[in-house]
Amino acid sequence: MTNKIKTRNKDINLDAPFHVSGRTKYVDDIPEHQGTCYAKTYYSRCGNGTIIKLNTKKAEQFPGVIRVLTYKDVPGENQIGGIVADEPLLAEKDVHFYGQPILLIVAKTESIAEKAMELIEIKYKEKEIIVDPKEAYEKGSVLAGSRTFKLGNPNSNFKKCKYVFEGEADSGGQEHLYLETQGAYAIPKDQGGLFIHSSTQGPTAVQRVVAKVLGLNMSQVEINVNRIGGGFGGKEDQASHWAALAAFAAHICKCPVKLILSRHEDLQMTGKRHPYRSYYIIGLDENLKIMAYEATFYQNGGAAADLSPAVLERTLFHATNSYYVPNIKITAHPCKTNIPPNTAFRGFGGPQGKFVIEAAIHHAAKELKTTADKIQKANLFKNGDEFSFGQIVENCEAKKCWDETTKRYKLKQLRKEIDTFNKENKYFKKGIALQPICFGISFTNTPMNNARALVHVYSDGSVGVSTGAVEMGQGVNTKMVQVAAQAFGLELSDIRLEDTNTTRVANTSPTAASATADLNGRALQDACNQILERIIPLVCELLKEKNPKNITFEGGLVKAKRKSMPWQELVQTALLRRINMSAKGHYSTPIIHFDKKKEKGHPFAYHVYGNSIFVVKLDCIRGTYEFESVKIVHDFGSSMNKALDLGQIEGGLVQGMGWMTMEDVVYDKKGMLKSNTLATYKIPDVYFVPKELDVHFLNTKHDNLAILKSKAVGEPPLMYGLGAYFSIINAILAYNPNAKITYNAPITTEKILMALYT
Ligand code: MTE
Ligand code: HPA
Ligand code: MOS
To answer: Region 418-431: what's the mean pLDDT?
Structure first.
């Protein structure tokens, strides 16, 4: 082991020095093989219709163009749908959204391919398009079956409720805006088959799709992911399309082919967060206890199913957020519309479900002339409560998070200060909102909750690790290195984390559902433990130790009660004794199950809780605002890396705030994305970030299924972002108590101005 960098401080991101010095490599940075060609996708300019004329001759004859490929050239199945087989790789006769891939142009350079695209002659017979999910549902345009979760009996209980309110709450789409756009680089292998660098969260999903469209065995297709420049769910399923197109071109043209989407193409062609239209009825008793809740969700799935049925399910799982409601009926419809197929996005439908109950609570509070936090607090989950899907609440941290927030951040005093400010200021008003969260950890599709890891201990004692996890900025690689270092008692710098590759770790679930470190980390522990078990008898012999329980691995040493020896020496001796110093670990989450027929079960390994307080200052002349502070108490379990986990809270929070306030995905009447540049689609920048952001790590060390008791952190913080919406609404109401409030996110400055003066 020659690497001398000591990395004792565990709260670091091993990638950071490489990111900030520009040395990190993404797909487009990989040195190119000789003879590499470039592919560009020609997409539909019609939102719904039939192709009645298509002439590719001129494009084919353009100098430097190698092939113009259509669906007819696809050697296997022209089909990439994951859950439902309803999405062609390239459109055949019909097109169903503006941006749908129709042709693939392969050329010697990217600019040649771009010029050739202008020579394509195409005509469509246009049909009526649908962009609204409720309209789609009413016309029978759906992607899959509707789902209903029930608990108790809401019908009879609404009658008993002292207060009943009903209304509509809609939330909009959201562009992932990963810094690295979608792309892949496919290279033919010398014995047939393909090696593909893909910017994907799901290497196995890419492998499966490529094999299917090319008519190859999966064993012929090797997917490699070094890392990706952000995914946020957008590359869980949708990276497969671009990898399959690159592979298709490479396979047919017999040369390496690179396909990288420009930002504009990526915005136009790929799916986003699902917009939802939703209707609620909420019933409360005189103590503000929610007695009954009914909601209907119309999910805007776009033109193909993609992951929509799974996202829909999570909307139902999280429809009551952190609150116990004894009588529930919630129904969700996956609606088929003429926009790009929407897909996974941080929270996976959960945020959309939560928005509706928070709107219902806000509505009730407004009518009852109280504040929403009184209702929120009165209904927080506690141990023993039942979720609508039958899981029983255990190790609940909802109240602990709530109490810690209000005490630590002095809610009463804060409220007084805001009231005083609002009395003293006419054109500036402050709004406050509390936002608790509760998020279930596990893929809701139980069989996906498994992982594997491969470990090699080399003769110098250093360790190589491969897992199914994809690094996308969330820091999972650092966490995997920490797990292996801890198991063998080594420094972080003694561990090498390899690229994610389907030939080393196969049949993986995507890096998603916030469960990656839990699943892959446990598989990695299993592999490390197998190696340790094999060498323990040798250690006993060498260190003259009778009781194997006395042996520990620490600081590069193997220690027995009286003696110790360097790890490196032990490894060398073990190899001389012909002990296998490599292992493959496996993990599948215990306990979890779910019965879709009954819509009952125990789908989540555990839940993550938290609470937050938002304070916003609104300029009531301009409709602009500034978040003065966001204060959070978050349930981390026992964080294994506070720097990474804090980064996830900050990033998730601001991304959620952007979704709720400024990120406005707009399609025109033809189904063309209007917000198709970064000038027309605004995301939070550094000025938008709350002036004060305080995150308190609530240590909730329970025996749970999290890796090293460090709870999953990737998605939950996005849902704090809902607080941004409700704090702004409260500031509007402070200025104009009669403002007409509709629950319709994002609440853009235009909408704020309208509400202030109506
Ligand atoms: N953080 C960064 N920096 N980049 C990302 O793309 N994706 C989020 C979250 N945090 C993402 C991120 C999403 S959608 C998920 S599901 C989790 O990370 C996935 O990683 P994990 O399972 O390791 O938490
Ligand atoms: N979360 C995120 N991604 C997923 C899930 C889930 O529950 N199921 C399938 N893909
Ligand atoms: Mo995350 S939406 O599960 O990739």
So the answer is: 98
Beta strands in 407-507 (DSSP E): 428-434, 437-441, 450-457, 463-467, 495-497, 500-501
Q: What is the pLDDT of residues 51-79, one digit of tens each?
A: 999 999 999 999 999 999 999 999 999 99
* Residue in 509, 400, 385, 530 with CA at minimum distance from that of residue 454: 530
Is 594 a pocket residue for ligand 2 (Cβ < 6 Å)? no
Substitution candidate for ligand 2 out of 317, 445, 519 with most atoms within 8 A of CB: 445
Atom 4 of ligand 3, residue of closest alpha carbon = 233
Alpha helices in 145-195 (DSSP H): 154-160
List domains and CATH numbers for the chain: 32-128+176-269 (3.90.1170.50), 276-443+596-756 (3.30.365.10), 450-588 (3.30.365.10)
In angstroms, what CA-CA distances link 367 with 169, 212, 391, 445? 16, 56, 33, 39
- Which atom number of ligand 1 is nearest to the Cα of residue 346? 14
- Is 424 marked active-site? no
Measured distance between the N- and C-terminal CA atoms of the chain, rounded to whole angstroms: 70
- Note the pLDDT tens digit of each residue in 493-521: 999 999 999 999 999 999 999 999 999 99
363-390: average pLDDT: 98
Q: Using the Cα atoms of residue 513, residue 99, residue 721 and residue 324 in order, give the sign of their dihedral.
A: negative
CA atoms of 433 and 429, how far apart (whole Å) = 14
In one letter, which amino acid is 630? Answer: V
Question: What are the tens digits of pLDDT across the range 132-154?
Answer: 999 999 999 999 999 999 999 99
pLDDT at 2: 44
- The gap from C-alpha 34 to its chain's centroid, in whole angstroms, comes to 36
Nearest to 525 by CA among 640, 370, 674: 640
CB atoms within 10 A of CB 599: 18
- pTM as predicted: 0.97
